[in-house]
């Protein structure tokens, strides 16, 4: 199909028909390719726009901030954001097998149980509850605490709990949080998130482990019923009645039509809705503006866009040289209620310890080793944005408007998060590291606080929600992740999340994919 594309298993040119086509080889897509191809009678085709991961820096945890902007980063850009001083934000997303698991900071945080209760409320289905998802998370994980009834043991993805390699600065940060009343935790994945702990990381033997490393092993890639096609994008879905008849796939040798019984979109919170809209499925007004005839009017496609922001940041000049991180710079995230270090329950804000001078593009970063940053953010933003296409072609840009900081609640909680960061940052437990605060400095009014926050915030790289699941008529997919308007189309990625989890969403995305794989197998056997 595409000259030079890496092929595993059957040759697509000889066998253009598949039982299942997975669109997108990122975190959800790689897991599904492995799980759905376990059934030897199912022919599975995985289509990925990028290539195989080859850059050695991908597997070096300390190199992760430098990966953004390289050839395998989609490097999307948002619309100028009124809530962030008119700034345009770069959104790094992986364009390669393994997707953003090759780019992100390797943090593994399931979320808070109440996050998933919101999913149950949206769908009416208990499978999306914390209790029901517990076995799903456990199947994914190989955790040092595995076998305790909470954490997984023997799963494909290693979960590393840092110990001796934790930076002495991060240790002081943890001590400061504990002195203020935050509980000490062993990771963030037990169901209790409020507290202080080193971050749990997808690292093994000092190297990043991507989803491709974990699930697309040599044995899996050798399956005769699995084909992996790289360097190819799906331009549109061709419809016939209430089904997808075929996919138009564009690769190095042009366009080809691919047929399948079932199609699973795993292209992410931006590209999954974009593909639907290019196919004439989406909000009528958006399609009209893009010059596309509307075949199925679904106003919610592309809406409900959510993302976490982090203030970068509360910056301190160091009293002594800060040794480079032996992990990945962002070593500890402390979750808490706003305005109360001793309250329990669902977290509202987060303060993170950066073993580096991390600032937004609005500020000049000091030299490495001379300063450190306390990052700050909110866990459940209420601002909702959108993504839409600007035209019918693959090269037409996406119009990404996350509507950052557009609600009063978000702005108020960000003020509290900055206050919490500064409270921790000025504690005596950090006195041995702190020479003086560099940012934000004196803030003499609420307007000055808001202005600093607007200029300091950066994306935490957690876009989701644009094809949300739910039982209400406007939801895009149902509780089984079946696309409501078509019988043989499913969406299985971050776009189906009704709302953000409290922390990084990668663990939740993997749980979404594993849940779908289990349901799919059950339907085949029934």
From TrEMBL:
Gene3D superfamilies: FAD/NAD(P)-binding domain, Glucose Oxidase, domain 3. It holds the Pfam family GMC_oxred_C. Coiled coil: none annotated. Its cofactor is FAD. FAD binds at residue 234. Residues 94-117, 268-282 form the Glucose-methanol-choline oxidoreductase N-terminal domain. InterPro entries: FAD/NAD-bd_sf, GMC_OxRdtase, GMC_OxRdtase_N, GMC_OxRtase_C. Keywords: FAD, Flavoprotein. One of its GO terms (molecular function) is oxidoreductase activity, acting on CH-OH group of donors. Belongs to the GMC oxidoreductase family. This is Pyridoxine 4-oxidase. It comes from Mesorhizobium sanjuanii.
């Amino acid at each position: 199909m595409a000259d030079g594309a890496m092929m595993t298993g059957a040759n697509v040119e000889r066998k253009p028909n598949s039982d299942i086509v997975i669109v997108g080889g990122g975190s959800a897509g790689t897991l599904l390719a492995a799980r759905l191809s376990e059934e030897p009678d199912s022919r599975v085709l995985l289509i990925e726009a990028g290539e195989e991961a080859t850059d050695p820096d991908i597997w070096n945890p300390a190199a992760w901030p430098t990966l953004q902007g390289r050839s395998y980063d989609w490097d999307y850009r948002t619309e100028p954001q009124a809530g962030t001083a008119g700034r345009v934000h770069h959104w790094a997303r992986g364009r390669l097998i393994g997707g953003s698991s090759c780019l992100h900071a390797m943090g593994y945080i399931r979320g808070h149980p109440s996050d998933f209760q919101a999913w149950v409320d949206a769908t009416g289905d208990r499978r999306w509850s914390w209790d029901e998802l517990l076995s799903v998370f456990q199947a994914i994980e190989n955790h040092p605490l595995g076998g305790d009834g909470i954490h997984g043991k023997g799963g494909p993805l290693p979960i590393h709990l840092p110990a001796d390699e934790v930076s002495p600065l991060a240790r002081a940060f943890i001590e400061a949080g504990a002195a203020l009343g935050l509980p000490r935790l062993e990771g963030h994945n037990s169901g209790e998130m409020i507290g202080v702990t080193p971050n749990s990381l997808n690292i093994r033997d000092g190297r990043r482990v991507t989803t491709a490393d974990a699930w697309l092993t040599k044995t899996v890639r050798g399956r005769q019923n699995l084909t992996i096609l790289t360097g190819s994008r799906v331009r549109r879905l061709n419809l016939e009645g209430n089904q997808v008849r075929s996919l138009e796939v564009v690769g190095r040798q042009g366009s080809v039509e691919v047929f399948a019984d079932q199609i699973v979109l795993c292209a992410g919170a931006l590209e999954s809705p974009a593909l639907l809209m290019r196919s004439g499925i989406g909000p009528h007004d958006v399609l009209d503006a893009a010059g596309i005839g509307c075949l199925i009017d679904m106003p919610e496609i592309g809406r409900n866009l959510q993302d976490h922001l982090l203030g970068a940041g509360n910056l301190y000049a160091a009293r002594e040289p800060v040794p480079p991180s032996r992990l990945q710079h962002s070593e500890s995230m402390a979750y808490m209620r706003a305005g109360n270090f001793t309250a329990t329950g669902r977290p509202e804000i987060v303060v993170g310890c950066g073993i580096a001078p991390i600032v937004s593009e609005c500020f000049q970063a000091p030299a490495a080793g001379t300063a450190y940053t306390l990052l700050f953010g909110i866990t459940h933003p209420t601002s909702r944005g959108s993504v839409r296409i600007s035209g019918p072609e693959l090269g037409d840009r996406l119009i990404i408007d996350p509507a950052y900081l557009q609600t009063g609640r978000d702005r108020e909680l960000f003020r509290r998060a900055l206050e919490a960061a500064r409270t921790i940052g000025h504690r005596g437990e950090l006195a041995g590291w702190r020479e003086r605060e560099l940012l934000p400095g004196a803030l003499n009014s609420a307007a000055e606080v808001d202005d600093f926050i607007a200029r300091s915030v950066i994306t935490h790289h957690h876009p989701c929600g644009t094809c949300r699941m739910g039982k209400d008529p406007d939801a895009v997919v149902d509780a089984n992740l079946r696309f409501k308007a078509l019988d043989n189309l499913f969406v299985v990625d971050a776009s189906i999340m009704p709302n953000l989890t409290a922390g990084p969403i990668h663990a939740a995305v993997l749980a979404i994919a594993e849940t779908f794989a289990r349901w799919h197998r059950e339907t085949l056997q029934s």
